[in-house]
Amino acid sequence: MWKDTLHMKAPGNWINDPNGFIYYRGEYHLFYQYFPYAPRWGTMHWGHAVSRDLVHWEHLGVALYPTKGYDQNGVFSGTALELDGKLCLYYSAVRYLRQDEEDIHIPPDDAFVTSQAMVISEDGRTFDNMGAKRQIIPVLADESLGDAKDTRDPKVWKQDGLYYMILGSTFRKEQGKALFYHSRDALHWEYVNQYTSPEFRTMLECPDLFQLGEEHVLLGSPMGVTPPEIEYANHAMWGLADFDHQTCTLSLKGAMEFVDYGLDLYAPQTTLDSEGRRVLIGWMRMPQAAEDPGDGRGPWNGMMSLPRVMELRQGKVCFAPHSNVEKLFRPMADNWAQAIRQRPFRLKATLRDGEALDVCGYRIALEGGRVVTDRSQVFPHLPNYRTAAQTPVLDGESCRLDIFVDDHLIEVFVDGGRYVVSHVVYGLKDRLEGPVEALFTLKEDS
Q1: Strand 300-301 and strand 13-24: pairing?
Q2: Which of 66, 176, 234, 401 gets the highest tally of CB atoms within 10 A of its CB?
């Protein structure tokens, strides 16, 4: 099976949203939306990867695939829950209303319906797709409750002896909403409440709700955040919230903010690691497939971000590289030219206003108090895609950068993770110019 270090990449063909992210029986399990037949979106399966440290991943192949009338056209995103030592996977099940005779993997006119389903595994590694699935919430028929097509992405958790589920939905593609259900046994579910906010734009995807310190955090991916003329219009965002689990009453405390200001990251999921820290991994959207690397993987499209620890600092959610990522690198100072050709590598820098750093053709600068990035030299000339990004205005006249560079991905952590800018890149150069403080390469024993 394929193994990936640091950044999990598609094991050939296509991956998108992370699913079912959980620490279970001493391993991290990360499932993902998977089309195993081509490097493009199509009928969704769940691929499966495991890791003991969040940085070395082993792909185990397909875990879930369509087998039932209600999921015959796709096993969409969902979550995982440990129940009596077993692993429960909750997912959105898709059935197309019509079929394109020339391409059965794409719904004509985007016409399909969605229900919620689950499957239970005894060991977290084997999944009975024929006999262990069950539909738990049928297609919604009441428009005032939720949309028959666009209600999806269940996140399930246990609190005070009950199980809770949050779903993303929309009202007529005009207003996004969150739906809440609860259950006594994690099998039979009852609708409880819903919440609508302008912050959800036209549709809320991939909602996640959890406590961080003394605050509740709502994580989600609203659709229609930025103008549709430029890819991408849908973005991962977070916001602080008040939440009463007994009544499932939710209210945001203010505006939602971007998880990542590169605007390539989408549909993140979180879990608690072995030490109880809240860890996030997101899908990095690639506008075109990467070429066959020559290892038999073939063309591939889609990868995951580094695992990030979420921390609450002075009322703001920050994202820092996981400590296991920190341990993976060692200083390298004797042969920098060789080091930057042996990716992945890591470097640190301090920028003052007006200074810039060129990392293999990717430019990072501090301009007017903002970190500004430009990937135009290491990105294909595709119309309607962003090549530049910027953070909000920072405090002070300088900033600290912690930068991780892989063949197709650069992640820039600003001031200890106060902001993050991550970008998919292509064709990195062997060049490093600017105020670099230290260079790190992967440990030889990794």
Answers
A1: parallel
A2: 176
What are the percentages of helix, strand and coil residues in the chain, rounded to 5?
5, 55, 40
What is the CB-side half-sphere exposure of residue 315 using CA atoms within 13 A? 5
Across the chain, mean pLDDT equals 96
Dist. CA 169–CA 92, nearest whole Å: 12
Q: What's the distance, CA 303 to chain centroid?
A: 9
pLDDT tens for 14-65 read: 999 999 999 999 999 999 999 999 999 999 999 999 999 999 999 999 999 9
At 167, is the pLDDT very low, low, confident or very high (cuts 50, 70, 90)?
very high
Query: How much of the chain exceeds pLDDT 70, in percent?
Result: 99
**How far is C-alpha 77 from the chain's CA centre?**
11
Answer whether residue 446 shows pLDDT above 60.
no
Q: How many residues does the chain have?
A: 446
Burial (CB < 10 A; 0-12, 13-18, 19+), residue 182, is middle
Catalytic residue from among 17, 147, 260, 273: 17
Instruction: Give the separation between CA 137 and CA 157, rounded to whole angstroms.
Output: 16
* Residue with token string 């590598």: 345
Structure confidence at residue 342 (pLDDT): 84
The angle subtended at Cα 13 by Cα 8 and Cα 18, nearest 5°, is: 40
Query: Which pair of tokens denotes residue 443?
Result: 């440990």
> Residues 71, 44: contact at Cβ < 8 Å?
no
**Integer-rounded Cα radius of gyration of the chain:** 21
| 100: pLDDT strictly greater than 90 | yes
Residue 51 CB coordination number (10 Å)? 20
Residues 244 and 177: their CA atoms lie apart, in Å, by 17
The answer to whether 150 is a known catalytic residue is: no
Q: Is the dihedral of CA 233, 238, 239, 241 positive or negative?
A: positive
Sign of CA dihedral 12, 5, 324, 63: positive
d(CA 436, CA 446) in angstroms, rounded, equals 24
Name, in order, each residue with C-beta under 8 angstroms of 39's C-beta and a sequence gap of 6 or more.
Answer: 10, 12, 13, 14, 289, 298, 299, 300, 301
Tokens encoding 178 = 């969150």
Distance, CA of 230 to CA of 371 (rounded, Å): 21
The Cα–Cα gap between 44 and 64 comes to 9
- Cα separation, 441 vs 37, in Å, equals 34
245-254, 290-299, 357-366, 423-432: which has the minimum mean pLDDT?
A: 290-299
